[in-house]
Structure to design on (1016 residues):
């Protein structure tokens, strides 16, 4: 090819891609209201993002079957944030620019949520995160809400359970070194120290780490009464399996993030007896939880985990708020959320009357004979 | 015709493009599109900076995201902890990145080929791991939040449009400064090193010194881009500067072409736009980047517009030949005469 | 100091190190014979692990069957990579091939995500129990046969490869091709075939690593080749890019240093060491611990 041809080809491609980007104009459809969903569908947190997607689509499909909201059918604008805060920012900008999008559900990680928050706040669009647990998230604006109990709540709860209820004095923690794990570890250890326990070690690991033998051997030497694991299920399964091989089996308490069938699947025998608090528990007798478990299982043929439950509640909260606020004005959604009363979600009762961080009731569960059951001391 | 008029007419295509880009935000009201254009701008600067190394000098650096990250974190810290105003923070960030560029280049440039490349990889990984674990300085995986928006001599930059003009200005500055560098002795020395290092050395070109300078400059520009990024997204975290980011830059350069100033621009633009346009093909996005690397290298390894001197000057009005010698390219098996 | 704890950490370090060593072996084999760096080796390892996973899960919980199938699959994958990244680019500078292997590595990770899904998978414990061959006890520490197998296989493979490369006719042909493939071609060697064979052998090593390490940790996920692949890279460089014993020794050293760094308080920074060593070696002794003073250049540089 001659160089002129190539040059014009290149410039043509440039122009084409720029105009292609402009070829998707924002048409304002009249009978549709859109809710944005920003979640990590690929990347490290892909499975949790897909949990969100499944729960929320299930709710929205049901809502549409029952006639939509205020006569309009609901369209979910699903965007993949890849677990990258920068992507969440781009998605936020896109959602905010679309006049049909009335509110947003997402994201998964706190850093993604907090990076995008200023954009939602500026556009006065509600950002409802199912799982962002960093204390500062809801402080970023009047539009920021969350469903999960913050680590600032769960950490001290677990600390009290470990130190006061179980009487443990020497505690070691192994935590995942990302925005969530660092936070979770901090609040737990802070409260535990305040209550008089000794934190003999706080070991962190990079996401993707598989070999914990070095950490475990070190802890073995320090002889703690209890190990606290703010991690995700794959790491916890690996940790406990390796600990079992080394004949090191202390009492293990973990974070609510571990509630999932996969913990048992991946953990086998090694996870017998671990205790965790839960936002949601599949055998929870509460009617709202049961209903969710049934619906999810019927739809997808699998037992849901707490991330799916939190996303489910987020979707239902959003729908309830939209019923109340109408679908015309973005700024009314936050007021509607704040005014909801008596909402019973799969993860407990949720109310934003006193702030955007719901106070959740946590239920204590453990694994016995390969099943999650209520914890009996 | 007067000389000035001839100059303007000769450069008409460039001026036209600049004019279009300058007036663009006035016609596009969709803030999302402006946002995409801003990211295109950031990646243009990054890809141009990588081009200095891979395209002009002929090194292969696969850890370039490290300098991007150094610029971002440095700018955030300078603005937030040292209280520097934005222009100083940005220059400072570029300088810090440049210093690191020097520190890396000096000892490793005497390594050749693959060993140098591996060193850049190692550096990127070390940088990432330090970012993730040095909690007290970098806040670890939590990242640095609430980075202040830029404010230049009291003029605050807040809206997307204002950010756009800032990056537009920076991109122009980058291209113009690089063009000047490449047409003067510095650029010609770099090209001579790329074409045949032994011959260049024999002709008295101090190859190591020029390579180090190129490295420092490349790091400096990347640092500037990083600083802009930090004050734009107002949040930095280690994940944005992992080697995958370096790979994305490599893909942009590989696609658009290296060795001149237009290829990187095209590569960055197309590869930023494609994931935006194809957002509905969510799972396939990274497949596209990987596929591009494989296909481009097999089909046209110098990139779409690589290996040649492209000039948008209109020859009819152009008396003077400003020759930038970029004929031939290390990636071409033999030279094609055009 | 509690000697039992230290001894246990030492065993941990050797185990961890032999994982790196096994991965580094395949990589060194490829560079040593082809003089080409491949970024996709971590992903070849990952594919080998998944293949082994499926074989054990779906066909029969037997190590040897899994190894055989994984080796075949990764050998095939290796040939494909060789064709894409090196065959057509024989005359190109090394950088081009490197970029292709980077692209292939990205493709493989995403393909694995599409095929197997992004979540972590594990073999059901009922199956694993049928494959578990027990453990021995040394000084109060329990070492499983699988653990020892990882190290044992690594050393065995290193020895086998050494014999192959240095004592057999095939090895001689490979060495000749590596030294100067045009001359070998002139002498009647089918160089394309030789490159493919060498690459296939190196990739098979990755497959073996995948099955062994995958079953040992019992965690399978698409990005498993990432960090481990990079560290194996470093181990290879530290040992000397063309030295098989070097790769093994370097891998073991890195494993031990990392483990003891955790014991003595720096668990946050454990991953730094492998890359730090790599940079230091590149600065002060680029040939690696076992390499000669003169650097073996990659082809095309």
């Amino acid at each position: 090819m001659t160089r002129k041809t190539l040059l014009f080809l290149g410039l043509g491609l440039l122009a084409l891609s720029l105009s292609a980007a402009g070829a998707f104009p924002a048409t304002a459809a009249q009978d549709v209201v859109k809710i944005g969903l920003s979640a990590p569908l690929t990347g490290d947190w892909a499975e949790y993002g897909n949990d969100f997607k499944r729960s929320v689509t299930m709710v929205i499909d049901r809502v549409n079957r029952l006639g939509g909201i205020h006569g309009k059918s609901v369209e979910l604008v699903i965007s993949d944030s890849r677990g990258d805060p920068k992507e969440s920012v781009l998605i936020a900008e896109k959602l905010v620019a679309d006049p049909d999008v009335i509110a947003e559900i997402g994201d998964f990680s706190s850093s993604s949520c907090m990076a995008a928050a200023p954009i939602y706040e500026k556009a006065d669009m509600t950002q409802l995160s199912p799982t962002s647990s960093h204390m500062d998230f809801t402080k970023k604006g009047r539009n920021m809400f969350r469903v999960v109990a913050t680590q600032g709540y769960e950490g001290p709860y677990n600390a009290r359970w470990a130190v006061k209820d179980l009487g443990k004095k020497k505690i070691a923690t192994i935590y995942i070194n990302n925005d969530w794990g660092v936070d979770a570890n901090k609040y737990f250890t802070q409260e535990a120290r305040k209550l008089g326990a000794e934190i003999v070690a706080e070991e962190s690991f990079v996401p993707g780490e598989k070999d914990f033998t070095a950490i475990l051997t070190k802890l073995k030497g320090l002889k703690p009464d209890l190990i606290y694991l703010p991690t995700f299920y794959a790491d916890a399964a690996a940790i406990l399996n390796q600990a079992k091989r080394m004949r090191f089996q202390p009492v293990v308490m973990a974070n609510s993030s571990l509630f999932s069938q996969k913990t048992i699947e991946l953990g086998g025998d090694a996870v017998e007896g671990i205790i965790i608090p839960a936002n949601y528990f599949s055998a929870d007798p509460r009617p709202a939880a049961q209903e969710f478990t049934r619906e999810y299982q019927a739809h997808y043929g699998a037992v849901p985990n707490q991330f799916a439950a939190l996303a489910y509640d987020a979707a239902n909260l959003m729908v309830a708020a939209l019923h109340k606020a109408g679908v015309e004005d973005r700024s009314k959604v936050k007021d509607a959320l704040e005014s909801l009363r008596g909402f019973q979600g799969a993860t407990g009762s949720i109310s934003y009357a006193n702030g955007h961080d719901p106070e959740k009731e946590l239920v204590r569960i453990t694994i016995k004979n390969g099943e999650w059951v209520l914890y009996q001391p | 015709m007067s000389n000035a008029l001839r100059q303007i007419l000769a450069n008409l295509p460039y001026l036209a493009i600049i004019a279009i880009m300058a007036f663009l935000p006035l016609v596009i009201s969709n803030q999302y599109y402006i946002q995409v254009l801003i990211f295109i701008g950031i990646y243009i600067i990054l890809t141009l900076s990588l081009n200095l190394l891979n395209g002009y000098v002929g090194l292969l650096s696969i850890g370039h995201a490290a300098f991007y990250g150094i610029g971002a974190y440095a700018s955030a810290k300078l603005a937030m902890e040292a209280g520097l105003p934005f222009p100083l923070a940005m220059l400072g960030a570029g300088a810090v990145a440049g210093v690191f560029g020097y520190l890396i280049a000096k000892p490793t440039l005497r390594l050749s080929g693959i060993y140098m490349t591996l060193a850049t990889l190692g550096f990127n990984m070390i940088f990432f791991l330090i970012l993730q674990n040095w909690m007290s300085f970098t806040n670890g995986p939590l990242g640095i939040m609430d980075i202040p928006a830029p404010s230049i001599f009291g003029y605050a930059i807040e809206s997307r449009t204002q950010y756009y003009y800032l990056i537009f200005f920076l991109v122009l500055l980058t291209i113009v400064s690089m063009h000047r560098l490449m047409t003067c002795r510095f650029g010609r020395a770099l090209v001579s090193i790329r074409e045949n290092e032994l011959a260049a050395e024999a002709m008295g070109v101090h190859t190591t010194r020029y390579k180090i300078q190129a490295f420092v400059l490349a790091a400096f520009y990347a640092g500037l881009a990083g600083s802009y990024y930090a004050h734009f997204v107002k949040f930095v975290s280690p994940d944005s500067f992992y080697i995958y980011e370096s790979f994305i830059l490599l893909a942009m350069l590989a696609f658009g072409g290296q060795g001149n100033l237009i290829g990187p621009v095209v590569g960055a633009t197309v590869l930023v736009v494609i994931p935006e346009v194809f957002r509905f093909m969510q799972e396939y996005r990274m497949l596209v980047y990987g596929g591009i690397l494989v296909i481009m290298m097999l089909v046209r390894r110098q990139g779409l517009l690589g290996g040649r001197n492209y000039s948008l000057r209109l020859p009819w009005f152009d008396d003077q030949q400003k020759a930038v010698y970029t004929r031939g390219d290390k990636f071409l098996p033999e030279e094609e005469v055009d | 100091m509690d000697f039992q704890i230290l001894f246990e950490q030492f065993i941990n370090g050797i185990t961890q190190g032999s994982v790196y060593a096994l991965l580094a072996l395949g990589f060194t084999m490829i560079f040593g014979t082809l003089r080409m760096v491949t970024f996709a080796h971590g992903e070849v390892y990952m594919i080998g692990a998944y293949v082994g996973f499926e074989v054990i899960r779906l066909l029969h919980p037997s190590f040897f069957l899994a190894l055989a199938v994984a080796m075949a699959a990764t050998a095939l994958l290796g040939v494909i990579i060789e064709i894409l990244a090196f065959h057509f680019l024989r005359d190109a500078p090394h950088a081009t091939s490197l970029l292709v292997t980077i692209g292939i590595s990205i493709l493989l990770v995403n393909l694995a995500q599409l095929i197997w899904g992004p979540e972590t998978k594990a073999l059901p414990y009922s199956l694993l129990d049928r494959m578990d061959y027990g453990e021995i006890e040394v000084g109060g520490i329990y070492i499983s046969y699988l653990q020892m197998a990882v190290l044992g296989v690594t050393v065995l493979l290193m020895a086998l490869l050494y014999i192959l490369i240095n004592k057999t006719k095939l090895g001689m042909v490979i060495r000749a091709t590596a030294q100067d493939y045009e001359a070998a071609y002139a002498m009647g060697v089918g160089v394309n075939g030789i490159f493919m064979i060498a690459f296939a052998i190196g990739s098979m090593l990755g497959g073996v690593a995948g099955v062994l390490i995958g079953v040992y940790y019992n965690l399978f996920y698409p990005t498993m080749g990432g960090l481990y692949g990079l560290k194996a890279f470093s181990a290879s460089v530290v040992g000397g890019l063309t030295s098989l014993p070097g790769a093994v020794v370097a891998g073991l050293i890195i494993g031990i240093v990392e483990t003891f760094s955790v014991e003595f308080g720096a668990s946050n920074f454990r991953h730094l060491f492998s890359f730090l060593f790599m940079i230091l070696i590149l600065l002060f002794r680029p040939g690696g611990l076992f390499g000669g003073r003169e650097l073996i250049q990659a082809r095309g540089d």
